Amino acid sequence: MALRPIDNALPTTTPERPKKQPKIAVATQKQQDRASVNGENVVPLPSSEDATVDYVSSDNLKPLADPEVKIQSLVEDLDSKNWIKVCESLNDVRRFSLLHSSLLFPILGKIVLVVAKTMRNPRSALCKTAIMAAADIFSAFGDKLLEPETSDAFDGLLLQLLLKASQDKRFVCEEADRALGIMVGSMTPLPLLKKLRVYVSHKNLRVRAKAAVSLSNCVSKMGLEEMEQFGLAELIEVAADLLNDRLPEARDAARSIATSMYEALTKDSEEMMELWQSFCQSKLPPIHALSILKIVKP
After folding, report:
1. 50-85: per-residue pLDDT in tens?
2. Which residues form the domain of 84?
3. Contact between residue 193 and residue 146 where contact means Cβ atoms under 8 Å apart
4. Residue 6, φ and ψ in degrees, nearest 5
5. Does the residue 144 lie in any domain?
6. N or C: where does the chain have the smaller number of CB atoms within 10 Å of the terminal CB?
7. What is the reported pLDDT for 296?
8. Is 113 domain-assigned?
9. Other beta carbons within 10 Å of 193
10. Which of 38, 50, 181, 207 has the alpha carbon at shortest distance from 124?
């Protein structure tokens, strides 16, 4: 049988498949969409303006030329849309705190609320300047922040500091740690301890650890009478719980709390270890008591 001509046969070559578009552009668009929905949680791109922020140490702050006039617009200036102006206003808060505190005190609650709000800003320069302002507020006003008029505002500020101290940005974290240290050094231990007690049970393990460090620093400043006012049983239970925490920072804080309690309880006793052992065993389950007793050895 004769073969058919193949002049009209389909070509054997496979047509070239269209190239896929890179997914980077799609991802970038999705990021932009998310940014437009919730700008507060978006990390801003590096800006040359960041270099214009000058982090002035507390010792180098100068008095304001016209503090009576400046105080009138301070809260409004802190709420500006211009972040550079907000940074300048935060430095004014620092000047008022350290050099014109009597003018700032009547609006201290409002100022603390705004400073805590500014700490939530994703721009690192703003966040750090707000933390520095918080530190100077602690230095200037101390226990006045725990009074009823400012107590709620202080609660919000404390939480933001613990969150910022738990961040991965090192220079923000270090500044927040420094502010927490100034806070503990500027306030009476017992009322501050009651504030911090809430956060050593926080679901965020890093916040829990930072709160534990500040709490242990408070306890180290307390005598036996103050510890008794807080509650010896509750305090040793806090130490026992933190001793099983996942983070070494929290466990170290637990050891510090237990050591401070041991020194306060046995200060005037000749049978130091017997008293300490009896106390731990009466306040804690056996397994927890054993863990605490291992911390202090004769």
Report:
1. 546 778 999 999 999 999 999 999 999 999 999 999
2. 62-187
3. no
4. -110, 25
5. yes
6. N
7. 84
8. yes
9. 25
10. 50
Give the dihedral sign, CA 158/161/165/167: positive
pTM over 0.85: no
DSSP annotation of 54 reads: -
Cβ atoms 74, 93 nearer than 8 A: yes
CB 112 within 8 A of CB 94: no
Count of domains in the chain?
1
- Phi and psi (nearest 5°) for 81? -80, -15
The CATH number covering residue 115 comes to 1.25.10.10
Is-contact 219 260, C-beta < 8 A? yes
The tokens describing 167, both together, are: 């961040």
- The 3-state DSSP class for residue 77 equals helix
pLDDT tier at 297, thresholds 50, 70, 90 = confident
On whether residue 178 sits in a domain, the answer given is: yes
How far apart are alpha carbons 47 and 150 in whole angstroms? 35
Higher local confidence (pLDDT), 67 or 26: 67
Q: Quick: pLDDT tens for 277-292.
A: 999 999 999 999 999 9
CB atoms within 10 A of CB 125: 22
Show the tokens assigned to 11.
């070509």
> What pLDDT is stored for residue 271 in this prediction?
83
Rounded Cα distance between 265 and 225, Å, is: 10
Contact 262, 296 (CB under 8 A): yes
Token digits for 57? 């140490």
Question: What gap in Å lies between CA 75 and CA 88, rounded to an integer?
Answer: 12
